[in-house]
Specification:
Strand content: under 5%
Shape: flat
Number of strands: 0
Helix content: over 70%
Length: about 130
């Protein structure tokens, strides 16, 4: 079954490979696999899996200290989650980025209502 529907599982496989490479400190392999997961999900129009791949890659880049790349990927993840209609996930991601940016600026994170619709990704607090 997996052989006849390779395209269905391809992005998941790449994402698992990326996460394993990340855990094994193989940064270059992780980067390559995250990109392959994103590309495969996009190619096959799995918006929710593209969102997840962007989000996990963003955490990966954040861990590496590549903040600009991480924020770019958080923005793209937020856009895909919003496109998919995952408003709760959008809210959660919005809150994470907002708190990260406040901590980065030396401010205390705020407590936001759980049910606020954070809207499109252009509203993410990236500055």
């Amino acid at each position: 079954w997996a052989e006849s529907s390779q395209w269905t599982f391809e992005n998941k496989w790449y994402l698992l490979e990326a996460e394993e490479s990340f855990c094994n400190n193989d940064v270059e392999a992780a980067k390559a696999h995250y990109e392959k997961a994103i590309t495969s999900a996009k190619l096959h129009k799995f918006v929710h899996e593209e969102a997840l791949a962007y989000e996990l890659a963003a955490y990966f880049y954040l861990e590496l200290g590549e903040v600009d790349k991480a924020l770019e990927y958080f923005l793209l993840a937020h856009e895909r989650y919003h496109e998919w209609g995952a408003n709760g996930k959008c809210n959660s991601l919005f809150k994470f980025v907002e708190d990260f940016m406040k901590e980065r600026a030396g401010q205390s994170p705020t407590i936001a209502p759980e049910n606020v619709d954070s809207g499109p990704a252009s509203s993410l607090p990236l500055h």
